[in-house]
């Protein structure tokens, strides 16, 4: 089987090495250039918060992984085009084909190398990148001041239970130990507001919530009453307060799966999270497509003068894939298309396009 995929191990190692060297050279160059430009734009904001040179390097350590992850698929595309164009220009593709090596066998070492890059990309994204995203988002949100420490408290949490709306200023604890502070409940029947209940604290009890420090305003009678303790029946459960919005860019894949189950159990929409979870796989896997989309640069006679035109076609196919991928993910985030379609349709579509072009021209 291996002999059918790689008729010559020497040729396979030669082409894979060319591809990997050029891919990571492009990636390193892009990261250095774009990180330098980005740092020039942000350094004034970082230093204005009373930071020093150490914080500039800290910013670089957080921003560089984002740039690397963003441009890795693009670097794979450029590495593919340069590798295949070089092989074509030097008539090495002609030599390979005259030895009985098919177009797919020529591309196989690049595809397997790209698969290795995809695995490394996934591991990098789910270990380094998610932490960098979360930390930089908090740091940037505090105008590059010292990061807050200590446990996080859910604030300004809104929950709907049937027709009623609950708002808690702060939420601490989980499950039966959940404590709500400064609670406002809008008791509605249909689309009409019946009561507005305000309480200094609330905790879950069987079938509802126990409120303390209560003031209830009856909308129909225009009368406000006060009581020390009030038990109300409600379908709202503690998990609806403690399962805050999840940003898929800030959590690794294996934790995101648990967050999706938690959000679903709390009655919240999870379509966007499902799309992001699938894209955490299809995104890195897109590197495998780049040798196929760039294959048009490998074939055809270099002396015909069409080599540059073929490279441009390969570049255009790659860019079109990136545009389609981002567009469908945006559509999936708004719930306009199913999450699985948003995450996987571009990959499958451009795989078929690449295969069709390859068979049409070479096989």
Instruction: Please describe the biggest sheet, giving its number of strands, its sense, and whether it closes into a barrel.
Output: 6 strands, antiparallel
Anisotropy-based shape: elongated
The overall number of domains is 2
Secondary structure category: alpha+beta
Helices and strands, in order, run as HHHHHEEEEEEHHHHHH
* DSSP helical segment count: 11
Q: How do the strands of the widest beta sheet line up side by side?
A: 1-2-3-4-5-6
Low-confidence stretches: none
Mean pLDDT: 85
Share in helix: 55-70%
Percent of residues in beta strands?
Answer: 15-25%
Report the strand count: 6
> Over all CA atoms, what is the radius of gyration?
28 Å
**In whole angstroms, how far apart are the ends?**
20 Å
Subcellular location: Cell membrane
Organism: Glacieibacterium arshaanense
Protein name: LPS export ABC transporter permease LptG
InterPro entries: LptG (IPR030923), LptG/LptF_permease (IPR005495)
Describe this structure in words.
By secondary structure, the protein is an alpha+beta fold. The protein folds into two domains: 2-146 and 271-361, no CATH class; 163-234, no CATH class. Helix content is 59%, strand content 18%. It has eleven helices and six strands. It has a six-stranded antiparallel sheet. β1 and β2 form a beta hairpin. The radius of gyration is 28 Å and the shape is elongated.
């Amino acid at each position: 089987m291996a002999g059918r995929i790689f008729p010559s191990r020497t040729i396979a190692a030669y082409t894979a090495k060319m591809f990997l060297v050029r891919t990571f050279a492009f990636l390193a160059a892009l990261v250095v250039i774009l990180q330098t430009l980005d740092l020039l734009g942000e350094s004034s904001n970082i230093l204005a918060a009373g930071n020093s040179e150490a914080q500039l390097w800290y910013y670089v350590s957080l921003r560089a992984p984002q740039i690397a992850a963003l441009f890795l698929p693009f670097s794979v595309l450029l590495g593919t085009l340069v590798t295949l164009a070089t092989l074509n220009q030097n008539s090495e593709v002609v030599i390979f084909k005259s030895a009985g090596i098919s177009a797919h066998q020529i591309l196989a070492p690049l595809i397997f190398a790209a698969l290795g890059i995809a695995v490394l990309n996934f591991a990098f994204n789910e270990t380094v990148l998610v932490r960098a995203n979360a930390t930089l988002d908090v740091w940037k949100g505090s105008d590059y001041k010292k990061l807050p420490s200590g446990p996080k408290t859910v604030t300004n949490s809104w929950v709907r239970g049937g027709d009623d709306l609950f708002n808690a200023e702060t939420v601490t604890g989980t499950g039966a130990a959940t404590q709500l502070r400064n609670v406002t409940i809008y008791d509605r029947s249909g689309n009409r507001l019946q009561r507005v209940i305000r309480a200094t604290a609330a905790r879950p009890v069987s079938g509802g919530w126990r409120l303390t420090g209560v003031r209830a305003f009856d909308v129909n009678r225009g009368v406000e009453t006060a009581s020390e303790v009030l038990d109300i029946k409600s379908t709202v459960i503690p998990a609806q307060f403690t399962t805050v919005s999840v940003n898929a860019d800030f959590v690794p894949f294996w934790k995101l799966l648990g967050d999706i189950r938690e959000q679903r159990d709390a009655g919240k929409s999870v379509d966007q999270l499902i799309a992001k979870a699938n894209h955490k796989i299809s995104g890195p896997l897109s590197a495998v497509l780049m040798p196929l989309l760039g294959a048009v640069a490998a074939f055809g006679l270099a002396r015909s003068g069409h080599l540059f035109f073929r490279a441009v076609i390969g570049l255009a196919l790659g860019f079109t894939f990136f545009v389609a991928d981002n567009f469908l993910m945006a559509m999936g985030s708004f719930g306009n298309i199913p999450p699985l379609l948003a995450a996987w349709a571009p990959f499958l579509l451009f795989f078929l396009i690449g295969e069709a072009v390859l068979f049409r021209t070479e096989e």
